[in-house]
Amino acid sequence: MTADAPMTPLVGLTATLRAEFAVWRRSAVARLPLGGVAFGLADSAMFLATGSGKTWKDVLGYQNLWAMFVGPMLTVLLAVTAARIDRGARGGGTWYRPVPPAYRHLSRFTALGVRSLLLNVLGAGTPLLLLGLLSSAQRVPADRAAEAVLVPWISQLGLLALTLWLARRLHAGAALAAGFVWTVLGVVEAESAAWAVLPFTWLDRGALPVLGTHANGVALETHSALAGASPWPPALLGALLAIPFLLLPRLSLSGTRTAKHRTSVERPAFSPGATAILNTVTEPAPRPAPAQPRLLGAALGMLRGTALTWLCPGAVALVALWLSWHDPETSIQLFTLLILPIGTLVLGLTVWSVAAQGWRAVASRATGTTGPALALTAVTVAIAVAVSLITALLYLTAGIPAGHAWPLALTSATVGAMLTTLTLWLAIRTSQAVAAVVGIIGILFGVLVGGTSMQQTLWPLIPYSWANYLDLHRMSLTLPVSLAALALFTYGITHATRKAAEHS
């Protein structure tokens, strides 16, 4: 007679919390809050560039962009990044440990909530500190400064829980899109009379009286009821929104396997990128002398079936639809400041997300990493250039003079290629989260500078707005610098891919 094996004791909440904080140390999740510093420095520079004679109320008003959009979107990106890493690593073995699901979910939310707080401290606190040190008139009172940091963070906790829940069950892109829609709805309806029953407004409503602005950044009128409203009811409602997403039933991680699933034999799966490139170097050659692998064809095959097959035509179709409603001369900025920068960001992130899964296997073949990396870069740049040239042709057929069409084609193709390689290099060298943060911040400041009178003085500093400058004077600087940066980033990509293979 044999005794039953003793049951493994469940892991407690304290140990789960401690393990969760240790999991993300030195990861992309830990580095992502540094994006707040980048935004804070850029925001401070923009504030100083608009002139002197401002007060601390103006400093608070400049936090509107952070509280309304950048902060919430970086919080969404934080949750999506954590979910992607966890899914890619299959939970690092923790899915099979005797941890109560409620402890696991609460610990994950707590760890990310602390990093969201750090994100807001760095993003909102950096300009408050720097601008206050430069001028006593710009020194925000301590209580208002604390509210400018804490109110947005507390309001974002519900969005964090929602995004984390969605990212566990859906594709990362779908969760990111849902977070974007939630954020935009919050901005649009923040001042609605029905805000108390519209959960997405809780994200932004509390920050408005603290910053003294409307949701669009315009200063509140003195007699406005919102100016004297308390920020805490909507902020606390935003935090309480997290509770249902932490308590929802069946909140298990996607891909979690039980014992009965683990008994089946699984065949190893390779990503489309790995399969396409490996097929070019592993199949026996029909002739005695082995043929050179067709790396460009393999790179193209890798991207077949990805979201790029509809995103690229969709971007061109969006421009065509816009041109059917608007004058082409006055609508070029839609492409140069929004569609092109956003497209290059999505292109670079998508390409590496596909290629990264099998890059170690690619590096183990006779081709090494340099050839495949150059082929991958060439195909990615070719896509950006092709979309730029087709779009310029659309503007030409819509009626803009040829003298405007060729600068648009040349500038958008060159700047688009440079921005694409920048994103690809950042995604490989650091992480996709860091590349996304840099891209989002760059696009925002590109719109602010390129779409306003600030371009008169700040245009050389924001490469994300360079495609908008079609005069020969500025093109004489942006085009050579973009080409030099393109070569530099391509060189960096070849080295970064080798390191990525070594550490994968």
UniProtKB/TrEMBL annotation:
The keyword Transmembrane belongs to this UniProt entry's keyword annotation: yes
Keywords recorded for this protein, A-Z: Membrane, Transmembrane, Transmembrane helix
Keyword Membrane: yes
Name of protein: Uncharacterized protein
Regions crossing the membrane: 32-53, 65-83, 117-137, 149-167, 174-198, 235-253, 307-325, 331-352, 373-398, 404-426, 433-455, 475-494
Domain of life: Bacteria
